[in-house]
Amino acid sequence: MADAKTLTVPKGATGVLVFADGSAVFGRGFGAVGEAVGELCFNTAMTGYQEVMTDPSYAGQIVTFTFPHIGNVGTNLDDVEADNPFALGCVVRQDVTEPSNFRNVEPFDQWMKENGRIGLSGVDTRALTRMIRLKGAPNVVIAHNPEGNFDLAALAEKAANWPGLEGMDLAIEVTAKESRLWKDGVWKLGHGYAKDEANSPLPFRGGAGGGGHPDGTAPDNRPHVVAIDYGAKNNIFRNLVKAGARVTVLPATATYEQVMEQNPDGVFLSNGPGDPAATGEYAVPVIKKVLEADKPVFGICLGHQMLALAAGAKTVKMHQGHRGANHPVKRLSDGLVEITSMNHGFAVDSDTLPANVKPTHVSLFDGSNCGIELTDKKAFSVQYHPEASPGPQDSFYLFQRFVEGLK
Ligand SMILES: NC(=O)CC[C@H](N)C(=O)O
Hints:
Elements (H helix, E strand, L loop, with lengths): L14 E5 L4 E8 L2 E10 L5 H6 L6 E5 L23 E3 L16 H7 L3 E4 L3 H11 L3 E6 L7 H10 L9 H4 L5 E2 L2 E5 L3 E4 L28 E6 L4 H9 L3 E6 L4 H6 L4 E4 L6 H17 L4 E4 L1 H9 L4 E17 L5 E12 L8 E7 L5 E6 L4 E4 L14 H8 L3
Helix pairs in contact: 8-9
The structure holds glutamine (GLN).
């Protein structure tokens, strides 16, 4: 790294990361040509780069993958957590190779290009990760230009002028704009995604009042979960279906009245990008009313943070965050350790939990809060991702616990 004002672009460099302080890391660009500004984070998962790139919680972020072989299994139509990638770009060690996998439909670099996402390869990602660990997640510009023409000083200025994720509400940008019925169960090799027959095809059995089949037969008696989408990962909804719920998804901006119109047995609060405190401005009043109405609530990640905010706790920005697929979490009720998937840069401040909020899970990496339960309501949430995608499935029991509790 060196000063952008005095730096020259090394021969053969077609991609660069430029930091707000003027330093730069060069490599080879792939995917889309152009530039993007955001927060640089790292993810330690060894599989699941397509799920990571399409997780809407990565909006506003550029992901450094610590696993060196990214792109080697290409991309497919199934391993997506949303219709498009939301991470702005990624930084990888090895150049992306020809895909080698029976499920591949499109090479990773081409998929990145088609989706307007910038990649940078040939980077010492270990050094970059250590730097993020030491100094915290920096604001950067990632740029790709096949001719190697970069105005480094201008890019450094752009990184410096970016306001950062703190105080930024991104859920409003990535949430589904319309309410919809969820129609998939979980994926199985040789079968693909299970079809949630009762919710498919439209018109539906579910929705307001529980309903029944349009022909008047076979009422759908499964508990009805109304899920508020702050930038949700699809696999959360698939797991709710697997656990026995029918699911209606509402936009982040749904009012309390719109939630209740759906006649929910329980309300689910999804993951999502950005600062929970900024998102909470419109979401928290709705969640408070849902709690007052004694509706059972389950939240994941951003949903966890917003349940905590609604209960009167505070959230804080973390130094470098947690992103990976092997994070150990201790369940406080019995000391059992769950290996979990994580992706968060903010956390619930455990020192601010009101008396009626009991911590239920804690990170074994840094002791940060990973779960809460309201002692006077049927409401709980976790900071990590029981839906995996990518990652272990140790924590599926949380979906079962929620759905069983609605019957
Ligand atoms: N995956 C998530 O829901 C992330 C929540 C929040 N945006 C954070 O970074 O902490």
